Amino acid sequence: MNMRTLLPVVGVIALGFSITVNAGQAKPAAPTQASLDNGAALFKRQCVMCHGAAGLGDGPAAKNLKGKLPSLADKAFTSKLTDAQIHQAISEGKKTDIGNMPALGKRLMPEEITDIVNFVRTLAK
């Protein structure tokens, strides 16, 4: 293979590598209004009992916990969490010193959990 035929091949390979590497760094698309609306409805049905309507950790069941839930409305707290971490906590549940968050992965589709994550992000101020 001579240099003339090799150069385009190398260029295509380099472009493909660049796209693959940068794909993980791309900013995710903003959630749709439909996702936020569904997330709000699911949050109300699945999460409000502990987390409260505004995500303050003051839901009626929270008084039975051994401590205070962190506020999902606290930007300093939620900014430390990735969407994947929130998604995993919702899907798999979470055991903590103050109580156990139930796993919702068998009750909800992954897309529904993503909708909740999108909605939770709107609670942080």
Keywords:
globular, 3% strand, mainly alpha, 125 residues, two-stranded antiparallel sheet, Cytochrome Bc1 Complex, Chain D, domain 2
Would you spell out the secondary-structure blueprint of this structure?
Elements: H1 3-23, H2 33-46, H3 48-51, H4 75-78, H5 83-92, E1 94-95, E2 100-101, H6 110-123
Antiparallel strand pairs: 1-2
Mean pLDDT: 85
CATH third-tier fold name: Cytochrome Bc1 Complex, Chain D, domain 2
The main β sheet shows up as: 2 strands, antiparallel
Report the oligomer. Answer: single chain
For the record, the CATH architecture stands as Orthogonal Bundle
Radius of gyration: 21 Å
- Strand tally is 2
Strand order of the largest sheet: 1-2
Order of helices and strands: HHHHHEEH
Describe this structure in words.
It is a single chain. The protein is mainly alpha-helical and 125 residues long. It has a single domain (32-123), classed as Cytochrome Bc1 Complex, Chain D, domain 2. The protein has 6 helices and 2 strands; from the N terminus they run H-H-H-H-H-E-E-H. It has helices spanning 3-23, 33-46, 48-51, 75-78, 83-92, 110-123, and strands at 94-95, 100-101. A two-stranded antiparallel ribbon has the order 1-2. The longest helix has 21 residues, at 3-23. Residues 5-25 have low confidence and may be disordered.
